[in-house]
Amino acid sequence: MLTPIFKATDFLCISGAAYISQSIVFHDRTTFSHIDGLMGMLGLMLPFITFRFIRVYRPFRYNSALASVMRVLLAWFIAQLVLAGLSHAYPGGELRKHWLLWWTTIAACMLVAGRCTIHALPSLLRSWRFAPARIAIVAPFAANVDLLMRIAQATRNAFVPEVIFNPSLPCDTTIDHVPLVCELSAFKQLVRIKNLREIWIINPLFEPISVEHLIEEFRDEFVNIRVLPLFEGSMPVRAVGDFRGVPVLNIMATPERSWDVLPKELFDRAFALFVLLAISPALLAIAIAVKLSSPGPIMFRQYRMGMNGDVFSIYKFRTMFQDADLPGSVVQARKGDARVTRVGRVLRRTSLDELPQFINVLKGEMSVVGPRPHAVEHDKYYKDLIQHYMFRYRIKPGITGWAQVNGYRGETAEIEKMEARVKFDMHYIRHWTFWMDMKIIALTIIRGFIGNSVY
């Protein structure tokens, strides 16, 4: 609902900042050349290209004010960097350089102010259409605080539960200050008193539900009655979505993100290339250390499963003695494992043996962030023991991931550890955003290189 307002406000902020900064820099209008005019036109168009790639205009209910501000600033600065690069190729750019600097600064301030103002509208203008809709909830099963929290998180800034009707309860009560009633008459009375216009029936997926009694009770009321399917935690993906513009109910499907993954793809290649160039001296030093530590190749290659089951060779520095594993078997390294070399122990402990995997990222076989790929032999073992284990491979595997920064690195000898790792991977797949990737990379840098369970 607010997306058109965001777009209009952003355009006014950017164009207004361009005019103000032009007035500050170009006192003499004759010094404003046709090249400057061309750059101005590009400067008005480029941001809305970067805004699309960085998903600046996400649905209002999924965006906090801080996230919205950070997204729009990043997209704006990227657009201005591109514009500055183009401007540098043309002569007479001294005044233009000052203009772009003023423009970037003023527009950034105006964009932040505009975003914060629009995000404040729902609370400032409660009686307007911008305000979160006040709803009544019908829960034909035991409602609890966890249910309310899940609804609140999924409908933030869009819907506010005011009353819950649960006929299975023995008596009326409250949940997080929301009245919960067990009699239909009391529920109808509260709906009228609170002047509610939305009734949502929370219903488990694929289970039949009777709504005739509600239709009969509210047939003369101007109340909307909707069914909200409740997707249990076992669902591997966000169930309601669209496929190329067609509304669908996903039961088991690869996440459809289309253009949304373009920033991730571009970032992966650029980041991998930058890292490989930046750490090339360290890679050379590690290669020499591995070669001197024991006979055998420097690099260790092992088959891993990639996106949609495609098998690829993963690159790692060799950390074990040559021929340490029997053909056709892969045994996880354990504490004090005699197969691991002295140098290999340091590399595994610090995850430096994983650095060559940036080559896999550069080749498009892996991503910087994603579920960690396991040996194919381990996949065959765990897929029959852990629910949705193989769903991890519906997206590209990563060098680091949400499970790794939450402590699940290294050995997974107990089935419970692997189950926990899979749960974190499922959470990442369901809630992936470009900013979540940035958070995981930052956490990996801060605390992810050392792990007590890495041998």
TrEMBL record:
Protein EC: 2.7.8.31
A molecular-function term among this protein's GO annotations: undecaprenyl-phosphate glucose phosphotransferase activity
First-tier enzyme category under EC: transferase
Keywords annotated in UniProt: Membrane, Transferase, Transmembrane, Transmembrane helix
One GO cellular component term: membrane
Subcellular location field: Membrane
Domain of life: Bacteria
Bilayer topology annotation: Multi-pass membrane protein
InterPro entries: Bact_transf, EPS_sugar_tfrase, Undecaprenyl-P_gluc_Ptfrase
Transmembrane regions listed in the UniProt entry: 37-54, 66-87, 99-121, 270-292
NCBIfam families: EPS_sugtrans (TIGR03025), WcaJ_sugtrans (TIGR03023)
Family: Belongs to the bacterial sugar transferase family.
Xref: PANTHER family: COLANIC BIOSYNTHESIS UDP-GLUCOSE LIPID CARRIER TRANSFERASE (PTHR30576), UNDECAPRENYL-PHOSPHATE N-ACETYLGALACTOSAMINYL 1-PHOSPHATE TRANSFERASE-RELATED (PTHR30576:SF0)
UniProt protein name: Undecaprenyl-phosphate glucose phosphotransferase
